[in-house]
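> run fold 3'-5' exonuclease DinG
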Amino acid sequence: MAKFTIVDLETTGNAPARGDRIIEVGIIVWEDGEVIEEFESFVYPEQQIPAFITNLTGIADDHVANAPLFSEIAEDVRELFEDAYIVAHNIQFDLGFLNFELQHNQLKPLDNPVIDTVELARILLPQSSSFKLGQLAEQLSLDHTDPHRALSDTRVTAELLEHLFKKLNSLPAETIEQLLSLEGNLKSDLRQILMDEWNRKTFSSDRRKDIKLVHGLAVKSIDIPDSSQVKPELSFGEHLDFVFHSKKGLASFMDSYEYREAQRTMAETIFDAFSSTRHALIEAETGTGKSLAYLLPAVHHAMSDDEPVVISTYTTQLQRQLLEKEIPQVERLYNVAIRVAILKGKEHYLSLLRFSKELKERNHDNYDTALAKAMLVVWITETETGDIDEVQLPSSGRILWNRISSNQEEAQETWAKENQYSYYRIARGRSEHAHIVITNHSLLCTDLTFDHQLIPSYNYAVIDEAHHLEPTASKHFGLKMDYIDWQNNLSQLEALMKLHDTTILKNGDDIDRLLQLVSNAKEEVDTLFRALFRMVKNKVRSSEKSDVGRLQVNFAATNVKRTLLAKLEEMTHRLQASLNAIQRSFVRLDSQEGGESELQSHSEHLSSMCFQLRDFLTEVEVDQVKWIEIDANGAQNSAYLFSEPVDISNLIKASLFDKKKSVILTSATLTMKHSFHYISDRLGLPKEETIRSKIPSPFPFEEQVQLMVPNDFPDINEEPDEFIYATCEAIYSLANVTNGRMLVLFTSYDMLKKSHDLLKDLIMPEEFMIFAQGISSGSRERLKKNFQAFDQAILLGTSSFWEGVDIPGDDLSCLMIVRLPFQPPNHPVYQARAKRLKEEKRNAFMELSLPHAVLRFKQGFGRLIRSSTDRGIVFVCDQRIIKARYGKYFIESIPEVPLKVDSTASLIENVSEWL
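> ok
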């Protein structure tokens, strides 16, 4: 085996060119699977160590005060890299610092072959949720006792490298061959290692039972589950007795099992609804165990009547939880293999047919494309679903995915005999024989309106996270379109033309003329979206922003100046003319070759988009509300078009509740002040026939939570800046008592940003780390993990942070709600719905605005207590919860907890005593 020198550095920052320096070096020399040398040293950086770095690494100025300068150890360090691969977790960082220091000391920089274990882990462990060293160590059970210290990080990197080489050794020969073809575009110098691995292979994948060759690709063999009918041995009541009260039930595999009456009540309610073919609304508060409570009756019904039950969720996180945790538990309780299928839209599934073709096209691969392809060729040797949600593709890898998902296949390709090993077909096949079909709200809504069913025929369904059904359906029956959508689709058409240029030329059409038409279409789209951008910017004050910081304006053709409307119409006509000319060429091509090509299909999709665009800009639709948003500080064409129905209830009623025998809607937040009236009205549920059940939490909330409201905050309407300042002072004061561990929820991105800027001035980095949605980099999940990684941290969130973020245990002790979460009164959808209610002589505030805010408030409140042992404070800065007549609706809609109203200083003193 080759020699590998593994290095990790701790530094004062991330840019040596700007003066940052090394403060600790850790090096391991690894050869023939053994560590043959270790080197560790602090380094005196000739500058103070920033507080943030001390907070992260534990290395302070006194640790390095008597350490050598790098110049004193430079030659010893360089010698360790002789004739070796340089290995690091993020090689560019460590090698960049090393070479800067070596050159600074008149030594030759290192130009050895390199291996980046971040990149190698992405390729060989494509299903990992994170590629940070600490999280990989946790996932692979590697010993990582002292994170962010050089030698400890180096040791765990060596263990990771060994694990990755073992994974490489297990790959089929065909996969190694594909990786070799992609290696040239990667950072790591893997050619010799891959060649050595290739030469060691004595088998072909067609000799391995676990691997199958499909379109020249090595993929994991997928077992088709047995579809024979199984019946439950006990009645449902007898089975619940066994599950909840027998030592062989839940108690046999759940540590510290405690019977929950609420869980059994919910299971019985659902079984009764199924048996009596009635719909049901069930609010199950935190701690009920609702997933298991609905799976038990769903599985029993499906097996007894041999018909599927569809379970729809909003988040993929809950789908994974059902598949990986809850379903295996139910299988043990029923002692049978439950036939389960997860079904999503075609865009979620890899097309092996498309991917095999794409792998042959390498002329235009950039780094992200090559990395994404390398990840996917390894992933297909281990996935049984082909669902892209299993993989964390690099940022622009999504462009590749748009070309190789099953969504790009024509109908005849998807169902062709030679494409039997289609992940989408396998998922559909499984769903047709499943007891339980797990899907998402979006596909459920699509299925309700399609002529041909996407989900196999069903009469019984459980809709979890049901408070999302109405907004999902509303978006589904509306429109979302932006400049990037158009450019991506036109660029895909351009790429397809270049791929098929010989066929096009054979047809007599000049490829350059067609490419010019696409270029013209791109220009028309750019001009049109720039015009829309200017229109919004001229119409809206910069202070009127959505909750994600965009300017927005209600769009109606009747409100737009005639001259501008005429220009917009002219642009869409020119765009349509270019698309029509392209499409005519592809129709001629298809008539000669027979069938419909992907070129024609793609051009037809663009024509459909153009019709939607034209309708948006010109049609007057009474039942639709349209609006446009722009990123005021973004590109001059960053305009986003939206439309939604004003009232979705009749559409949902007609397509779902009137057609299905029993639909169960459940969530932790469905009622306002113990009433289901709002959600029933919004969803169009039949009032008389629907079962309604509110199941309280088994958690002792009165002992776990204190609700606190300060009575000395400035009035936000009269003194908005003073309100923000008081909020920030309260955040800082509370953080000192709770040691950080705070989640602060805003209703406005603008207020979040102002608060973040002020907190940065108030709080030193060595005191608390501050993470803010839309400001700190990373997704919601990444921000949550960063927040949890630091002992003293504050997390600021808006919009999506009000729900679906679980931070259990000691990681979260204080939840601050800055403002009651009323919808912005200027949001076009709210305005249209409020106007409709007023026309019907109804109270828009009480029937629309208040219930929506209460449900949102309940979702925010639910972030704090996620287990029976959690404790914490809910601090509400908005005094309307006490002073306004409607404030009681908020308080009476959450579990009964002690409420304290006092000065901010007194409340913080109470927090200190209580915690």
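Residues 372 and 397 are 6 Å apart (CA to CA).
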